[in-house]
Write a structure and sequence with these properties.
The structure is a homohexamer of 234-residue chains.
Chain A: E1 5-7, H1 15-24, H2 26-32, E2 44-45, E3 52-61, H3 67-73, E4 80-86, H4 97-105, E5 110-117, H5 120-126, E6 130-135, E7 147-148, E8 152-154, E9 157-159, E10 164-168, E11 171-175, H6 180-202, H7 207-210, H8 214-220, E12 223-225, H9 228-232
Parallel strand pairs in A: 3-4, 4-5, 5-6
Antiparallel strand pairs in A: 2-6, 3-7, 3-10, 8-9, 10-11
């Protein structure tokens, strides 16, 4: 794939699906997808309690160069989330208050960036959520082309433009647009099951019993002893 | 030591000793132990102000596999702290809201885990304190045996089942059960001394004078100059 | 430069210049200096919202040895900031509540340390701001000489005693004393320009248009396509 | 994508294309692809001078579990390269001499693994090239399903089964199978150009002149001074 | 445990057991111990092909202070291996040619150090094997007491004085002295089994068949498909 | 300091001084300077046995942009060493065979770069020594100005153009030009002393005795015990 490409029209999942996925949370969705779709945990929110769900507008940028984010804002619609991948590991502050002001003006809900972020006091005051690999005041140049809305690998996860991004305190999950409805259904089913399990665990029942783990543990050879000395005699 | 072992009966320090150690704080206890017993500083609390003191129930787990934590909960008594070591560096979210619900139902006071943790928004709302090396939504399997209540090395510190664990914003310290009373006495003595020192420092007295450091600095050759140019002429 | 040297008289920038720089913020000052002067982003504040501006009193210390900080406090005047460099990467808790009490008694405004810090709950309660590379209860010795008020490299930035240190949630910037007034003027000019830009971005205008980026992007060959398929046919 | 899937029939690029790409080297191919396709540089060869080119047989494994590599070997043909991605960062020794013996018996040319490798003395003696993120004797379990020949993200790069993998001392590049011929042509063209450039540089000509950089540097404002003092006066 | 302690008489395993363990290699011993006893993989040999087996003389040192290594050399006997733990993460060059000369004169076979090493060209020429976490010329002081021959945690593994240390290109394993003979027997048994397995794998037989993995994979639900499209239809 | 500046005339130390420093080695020079001047140990040579001594031509570059190295080569004289600092942490392959060919044609002896390097097989064959923080095939752009021969901080050490750079397997040391002769004298004196010490250590004498450490250890309270049990009874 050549760089220097901007794609203007991207498919997006239905709004109500995106909103509903946002209510499921990252861990539930990741499990419902068969334990897939997570970005690496080095991306962290800039403030506690940040949550975000939207359609990915993807950016591929050069380290230390935020030019393509400006190009990307023009392609954003209300409800979008900017997802910025960088061609090499970098912590420069590629995004700050001014770009956030511009993003908010175009309805962008948040940013996921495999690089640094700055002006975090101002961004926190605006409640504009950002997940980044670093906080750094280091400024950037505007010198080299990248691309917008091409497939990118961001923090170890593949993202296509229009995929649903859900982010919270636990990290970021990427839901392929085509399977958003199916993942939502599976997430809701999982949450219902967890409600039941939570009630049982809260009453003191053990996961060992609820999930019937004892026979399998026994089959694999788990042994119980009263004391460590007794175990040593085996 | 073979894996696949669960020890049911572990010795515990007296409750009042544990509570009193909890009031001393991690830094004081670590100093009172002769600067020993600390876990590595990469373990961090999931929320600010978290504090915890209790008896260690130890877990040795495989990376990405939280099965043994379920086994361990059954061995917990009110006042215990789960201490989870993993056989290789790992950041997966091996503990979350459901396991915390189960732990709370059995009186567990907190978790120290040399791996990742998830559902941190829910855990924070529950005020269930966790010290972990990462926050990650990554789910885990239940496939491989480990052990419970065997000696483990967790974040660089050796922990025996029943040792007293004290954790706060500064980190985690392990107090060998047999020396808990002695460490408590030394910690209290240290706090008393620090109260006096704090008052003197607050009035403007210098550590140089309170601790009589000047003669030793002088003996080692510390030299004072008015300006850097003057120093260069030496 | 030999170690074991303490310089007593250091030049300082005018108070009003330092205060005014403190109001500009780290990112603005760094940009106004031509994107220079930043420490590496691994130094982080111990609590959110920490801000600090003052004259650097520099310390060069041995890893795990905080003796020279005691020596440095005697050289501090109201309005100073301690800047501690260490001869090797280290995360020990070289600074805590007692040293902070002493520092506050001598008018010190904050600490920047390329090592660890402890007693962070107490420091936060005191609102004594610290930027450190780690939080660690690990105690330190007082055994080896270093120097005070000599030039140091701290977290990748050169600091001379008396340079202006400005620190906030975004990191730490070092303003050479001799250029403090010039940097302040440039920072103020930048803030005025950013106020105008912020208003335009907030109204929905694009950075692409405000900064007239389109011709340069076009010259470098940026291409727009409706769909990814269309781009692939090129 | 569910886990627990093995794909038996994968497309492969023509042998002569693969061989020819192997002669181009990683840096050249990466440049010829428009600076794309590289894995992250933390993957390193276990011995100097290792080179490898072949068709990717992809593996998605659980951390600390090498079961799926055994499953993958059955799917390998002479000329293939095993590419192992892991669902979480892990350094365990998931591959060693026995698996290498099996791989060699099925014509596998090398291994790229985003985890650890062991028996490196034996692998080096066999001249079986491995690129890994760590060398570790840590043993692994065979407990959890993964997948074979599904698309994976390995060390930050997307790999499809059948893509051409080229690896040498500089790292690993992934050439999408469909564009292998085109990339080969571009790589050969680049090498021809570099031969000419090398000869000119070797004779003392400057890159500044060969690539006509001076006018652009001048336009951007590069200034030459005789001394640093002279520059400071500007 | 207080610091400032030197233990003079330590038990050692029989020489022939140590020699025989040295011939087994680290990975084999680690497996024979039930996948236990390994140090973390960040410790690496300073030259390829380094191998070492001997009795541990343990050292607990302060970061950046190599005084206790001098104290330890006096306690070494021919056939010993120095194992140096440091109270905090540190990469200083705590060991170099002069100390190696002294160690060799006392029959020491090698060094395992959770810190840095220097003079590696000279050490390599002497064929004195060192496993360290860094190579660094950074010099150290002799200012603070530590201990010799007390139990230490080195690179994540507990070591008692007199334990058998085996180190090679794959890392370092610690064999508790009391179980050295038992571990040797298990290691030899494992090597015998591996010889058979190697021969079968070399002939093209699959691990899947040799270890009879297919029924278990099938029971867990592993599915084979001809193509990825076919898998997607499921 | 503004960027976009090239200084043409730099002072250099006398050739014979540089050659003689090169024969002392990095560790000796660092000690002779009072344990100063070292770069951080994450910079490593691309091949074993690399050695280099010369006058620093400094480069300040943007991450992922090697344009300024081309500018710097024109300023190099036979006997110079290129020292490349980057404004943010970066591992891109900013230097390879073509630039090395150009550098060699201008008499450059080696490269120290706080970023990545590529074509390491070719560079090794040329015996062009490079110390870098990574090996990476990642290509770079030529888009943004930096500076040449201004003071830089490279891997934690300050470097002025014309300083003497000595590099070997142990790392890199920066000798300020003005003190090169004095450092050489101190290094030679140190080597003479070490020759004597080496002979005594080789004969079995202990550092404890040669350096008369016992009284100081005793004064600080070091205690000897026959067994660990005896120590515990104290």
């Amino acid at each position: 794939m050549k760089t220097g490409i901007v794609i203007r029209k991207i498919p997006r999942a239905p709004k109500e699906t995106i909103e509903a996925l946002g209510r499921c949370g990252v861990a539930t969705i990741h499990e419902a997808m068969g334990r897939a779709g997570l970005m690496k945990p080095y991306l962290r929110p800039i403030y506690g309690g940040a949550v975000c769900a939207g359609s990915a507008v993807t950016v591929l940028a050069q380290p230390g160069d935020n030019w393509m984010i400006h190009v990307a804002v023009e392609q954003c619609q209300p409800g979008d989330v900017l997802v910025v991948a960088v061609t090499a590991d970098n912590t420069d502050g590629m995004f700050g208050e001014l770009l956030a002001t511009s993003a908010v003006a175009h309805g962008v809900r948040g940013l996921v960036i495999d690089a640094g972020c700055r002006d975090v006091a101002a961004l926190t005051a605006m409640r504009f959520p950002v997940w980044s690999r670093a906080i750094s005041a280091r400024g950037t140049v505007k010198a080299t082309l990248g691309s917008v809305n091409v497939p990118v690998v961001c923090a170890g996860a593949e993202v296509q433009a229009g995929d649903v991004i859900v982010a919270d305190d636990d990290g970021i999950v990427v839901v392929p647009r085509a399977s958003a409805a199916e993942v939502l259904a599976a997430s809701n089913a999982r949450m219902a099951k967890e409600d039941i399990k939570r009630a049982r665990l809260s009453s003191g029942e053990l996961g060992l019993d609820i999930e019937n783990m004892r026979p399998k543990l026994d089959a694999l050879g788990l042994k119980y002893f009263d004391t460590i000395e007794e175990a040593g005699r085996q």
